Amino acid sequence: MERDEHEQQKTIRFTLDGRTLTTHQHEMTAADVLRHGGLDPATFDLARLREDHPPRKFTDTEDVHLKDGDKFVSVRQSAPVG
Q1: CA nearest neighbour of 12 among 77, 70, 64, 54
Q2: Is 58 or 5 the better-scoring residue by pLDDT?
Q3: pTM
Q4: What secondary structure letter does DSSP report for 34?
Q5: Cα separation, 24 vs 78, whole angstroms
Q6: Residue 71: is it exposed, middle or buried by C-beta count within 10 angstroms (0-12/13-18/19+)?
Q7: 78 band by pLDDT with thresholds 50, 70 and 90
Q8: How far apart, in whole angstroms, are the C-alpha atoms of residue 39 and residue 52?
């Protein structure tokens, strides 16, 4: 097996809102990451959490490079008042 094929088959584990998810894709759009976690990108945005950096929010069409152990949270775009 070539290195590229091996890299494509590697399972990546990451969390979204504390739930562990897995994929073989090393890159997804932010909207696809949200959908993978069962969330609607029309309602939520995606943000990556890192210990030594402020949270990084992504636009729906932005590519997210996934690494094993990444931590993401969903951010509600708006909530009804009243």
Answers
A1: 70
A2: 58
A3: 0.84
A4: H
A5: 31
A6: middle
A7: confident
A8: 27
Question: Token pair 């584990």 is at which residue?
Answer: 13
Q: What is the pLDDT of residues 34-75, one digit of tens each?
A: 999 999 999 999 999 999 999 999 999 999 999 999 999 999
Domain range summary for the chain, segments of one domain joined by +: 3-76
**Residue at 19: amino acid letter:** R
Looking at domain 3-76, its CATH class is alpha beta
Q: Which residues pair with 63 in a beta bridge?
A: 29
Q: What H or E segment, with its residue span, contains residue 56?
A: strand 53-58
What would the two tokens of residue 6 be?
């091996």
What's the start-to-end Cα distance of the chain, in Å?
58
